[in-house]
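Sample entry was shown:

___
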Amino acid sequence: MTAAAHETHEFRTEVQKLLHIITHSLYTNREIFLRELVSNASDALDKLRFFQSRGDAVTAPDLPLDITITVDKDARILRIADTGVGMTRQELIDNLGTIARSGSERFMAEHGLNNGAKAEGSDTVEAAEGEAASPSSSAPGAPTDAASIIGRFGVGFYSVFMVADKVRVTSRSCQPGATAHVWESDGSGSFSVAEVEAEGDAHAPARGTVIEAHIKDDAAEFLERHRLEAIVRTHSNFLPFPIMVEGERVNTTPALWREPKFSVTPQQYEDFYKYLTFDSAAPLETIHVSVDAPVQFTALMFVPPRGQELFGMGRDRWGLDLYVRRVLIQRENKDLLPEYLSFVKGVVDTEDLPLNISRETLQENVVIRKIGQTVTKQVLGHLEKLAASDADRYAEFWRGHGKVFKLGHTDWANREKFANLLRCNTSHHDDAKGLSSLDDYIGRAREGQKDIWYISAPNREAARLNPHLEIFRKKGLEVLFLYEPIDEFVMDALGNYKDFALKAVEHADAATLDAFPTVEERKEPEPLAETDTPAFDALLARMKDLLGDKVTEVRVSHRLSDSPACLVSPDGSVTSSMEKLLKVMQRDETIPKKVLEVNRDHPILRNLLRIHKADPADPMVESATLQLFEASLLLEGYLADPHALVGRLYGLLEQAGGWYAEVKKL
C-alpha cells in the first residue's frame, strides 16, 4: 500500500464514554451492527442515484449500484463495500470523527430534502382509501428524490465496535478525480486518516466505501456466511439495491408494498404472503394502501384464509412488521393494529417515523398511534366493502376470524363499523351455518318492533329448546343465537344499534310481546276455571314453602307455552349466561336465587293442582316441585350435582310405570 503520512485525530466527543454506551447499552442485539452498516451503504447508493438523476458527473459511472459482504476467516475480517457516493478526506474526518453527526442528515438539509418530500410515483391521500399505491421505483438506477435515505442520527456506524476491535474504512468520493483515503480506529479515543493510492490497495474502491471490521474473538459467529445471510434477510431484505454475500445475492424478494398497486399481479401478492407467513394457502384478502396524511406510510396486509392458532399456541404472536424506508425496525409491532384485528398479517413502511438513535425504541409514539388508527380504518373499510360485495366470501372470513374479531367491542372509536361487520346465527336460519348482520335482522323485524332480541346457548339446539324462546317462536320474532361467552359482552357494549335496543330474551316484558299478533297456529289448552284460581295460588304458595330460600318467588309465567317451568332473574339486569361468567371469574360457586315461573296450562301443573287440592301434604307435591326446580337449574347450567334429581326421577318413573300397568291392566 502506498500512502501519505498518517494524520492522527482525537474524536470530537468524550468518545470512550460514548462508545461504551453505544456498544454496551444502546443496542440490545449485537447483530444490529450489520443492519446499520448495510443501511449506511444503501444511503450512499441513494445519494449517488440522486446525483445521477440530476445529471451530475460521477466517478466510474458504469459501476453497478450494489452492496457486497465478504469474509476473510483467516484474518478475521468482515468487509462491507458499496459503490455509492463515497467520502472525501474531510468528510471522513467530519462524519466518522464526530459521533452523532449524520452525513445523511446534512445531505438532506443541503438539498432541501429534510421535509420528507413525497417519493416519486406515490399517490395522494385519496388513494389511501384503497386504490393505487406507492412510492418510488426500487430499481437501481431509477430517478430518485433521495426521500428513501435512512440514516439521520449518525451513530449507527459506531455499533460496529460491538463486534470489532479495529475498524478500517477506505473510501473514494464520487467526485471526478477524487483520491481514496483510509480511516482507522480501535475505538479507544482516536482515529487516523491517510491518503491511499487505489493501485496500491486491493480493497480501495474505484468509487464508494469499504468497511473492514476486525472481528473480536467472542463475535466469531459474524464470520459465518449463513449467519450474515440470515441477518440481511431479517433486517435488510427489502432494500432497493442488490446485497451480495460471498458473491451471491441475498435480498431477492422485492418490497411489493413500495410498488404501484396496478403493477403487482395476484401471483406476486400470493408469493409475498407465503414468504411472509409460511402459509401454504393463498390469502383470503389483500389490502395494499399508500397514505400521505396524517402521516406518510405504505402498507401491504393480508387476511389469512383461516385462523392460524394451533391449540391456543402462538396467541401472542401477532402484529405488523414495521419498516422505515425498507429497513426492518420491529417485527410484530402490536401498536399498529388492535388485538381484534390480530389475524391480519403484513408490513407497514413509513417515511415519517422518528426513531431514537438505536432504532430499537420508537421516539414519538404519537406517530405510531396515528399510523395505527389509519391502518385500523383501512382494514375495517376493506372488510365493509367485502361484506357488501361478496356475502359468501365475507362469511368465509367470519368463520375463520369471527371469534377474534368480536374482541373489537371495546373499540369505541370504530363502534359503528364494528357493529356493521358483526354476524350471528339466528332463529331465521335453517341451520347453524347461516349468518346474518344486524341490518339483516332489522330488515326482517316485525312491524312496530324496536328491540333486537338475543339468547345465549352452547349450540343451536340448546337455544331452540330454551324455554325463554317459546313466546318468541309463538309471536314470530327473530332471535340472535349467541354461542360464544364473549358474545354477551359484545351485546352489552353495543347496547343499541341504530334505533333498536339489544335485549336478552329472558328480560322480555310480557306486555311488549303481547302487542304482537300470534303467528304460530296451535291448539290452546282449556283455560283454568275461575274457581281454581285461588287453588292455584295456594299451590304456588305451597311450592314456595317447599323451596324456601332457594328461590325469591314462585309465580305464573306469561312466556311459557311448551315447558312447565323456568328460572328468571328477579331484577332482570343480568342474563343467566352473563351471571355464570361473572361467577366463574369471581370463583363463586353458589347458586343464585331466582324466580321460579311455572306454566299453569301445562299438564304437569294441572295434575299437580288436582293432587294439591285433594291433599296439600301429598309427597308427590314435594317431589314434583323439587323436580321442576332442579330441572330448571339444570337447563340454566347451575346444577352442579345431579344425583338427587336423577334419583327422584327414577322414583317417579317407578310410580308412573306401576300406575300405567294398572290402568292398562297389564
Summary: Confidence is low (pLDDT under 50) at residues 115-154, 355-360. The chain has 19 helices and 22 strands. Residues 307 and 401 are 6 Å apart (CA to CA). The first strand starts at residue 7 and ends at 10.
